[in-house]
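It would be a great kindness if you could assist me with a short task in structural biology. Thank you for your consideration; the sequence and its tokens are set out here.
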Amino acid sequence: MSTVAEIIQARPTQPLFINGEWRLGSTGEVADNLNPATGAVCAVVAQASAEDVDAAIAAAHAARLPWRKLLVSEREAILLKAADIIAQRADELRDTLIEETGSTLLKAPWEVGYAVECLRSAAACVRQAHGETFPTCAPGQIGMTVRQPLGVIAGIAPFNSPLLLSMKKIAFALAAGNTFVLKPSEYAPLTGLKIAEVFEAAGLPSGVFNVVPGSAETVGKKLVEDPRVRMITFTGSERVGKLLAAEAGKHMKKVTLEMGGKSPLVVLDDADLDYAVDAAAFGIFYHQGQVCMASSRVIVEDGLFDAFCQAFTVKAKGVVVGDPHKPDTIVGPLIRPQQCVFIAEQIADAVSKGARLLCGGTYDGPYFQPTVLADVTPEMTIYHEESFGPVTSLYRARDFEHAVELANDTRYGLSSAIITNDLQKAMAFSELSNAGMIHINDATISDEPHIAFGGTGDSGFGREGGRASMEEMTEVKWVTIQAGKRAFPF
């Protein structure tokens, strides 16, 4: 079969990947894919019509039983080969992430490495779709549960970490014996197509994995409504996630959601100041703050607050902003240029209501300066809303109890962290925090492919990674075996 690169040489449009074939969209519609750093067109991508999405679903549906029946050793081998191919093409995938999403040289290679580890973790899970056995109350009878794949799963991926967050959905779905249709973000379709190249090279059977770039109105709507799609796994905005969950409910379709966050980092008086400043800076400025786990709220106990504000402001002013290709760049461009306007409005609202702007607050094109606010109150929109940019707010806590109160004062519940040398308070925080993930003496940003990743509240529901994914993406079947003859009542 032709590779994406070979088709591009003959035609300027990046094709769809359906049923093991690279094809242009049935309507001929295309969309420009822009480099966020320069605004230049880095690719022209075919847009899937409802007819194309139907073809992708049909292919996945037809492939589901043969893929499910494949020996676990064969599924495992394909996933491991895909991991090796990504490792071999690491530089190419790194460059795609830089060009397509504005990822820096700090972030892009890490994301590629995560994809490799994700596939290897999924391969390890192929042999671990465990059921249970248990006694029943009927004489001579034993019972068991077995896990079976759902069938066709659709993934809707975001733009911020498209390789990582797509692969986490795809790899474990395939490991569990499901087939998959991926709708990549409109801002990062190339990465989704690169994933298709990888699986094609790894020998994945036709139809098992399909990629259909396009609009939410066309592609997303069809994926949610089609009864052949048994599950939707979504990462993205709170607004879209809630709409998707409502629609999925109408069609009795399983769904997992990983949405936004206002993740708190709590710093207690006994913390090492320099370490806490470094953890907070990493937590908010990594990938321009375009991370659902970003430390957008830093809550510092009263005795350390003033010193922290001073030291953290100095740290933020020293963060290098600019070309994501340069090795010293920490903050690159925001993927969506309109996000700069949104963030600037949040900051203006906060300052007009009494917040102190310690540094930043301005932007040049897609580049937003690292920004630190203090004296933020609940009357300000930024207190409640996710910024999804390099902006954080510092809060003074009277004591540990007040810090916990502030940390939980949000409708989100994705990640939280605390820095302290007091083990009792650290463990108490892990119990009292409403977040789905709590990190002690670390930043709020942390992820590994084999752990159960996910949140509570408006951050969504369901878990991704390792055994959690295998459970989400399978269904439990109860089986009984009767020894001898059961005595029926009539």
Q: What stands out?
A: Confidence is low (pLDDT under 50) at residues 1-11.
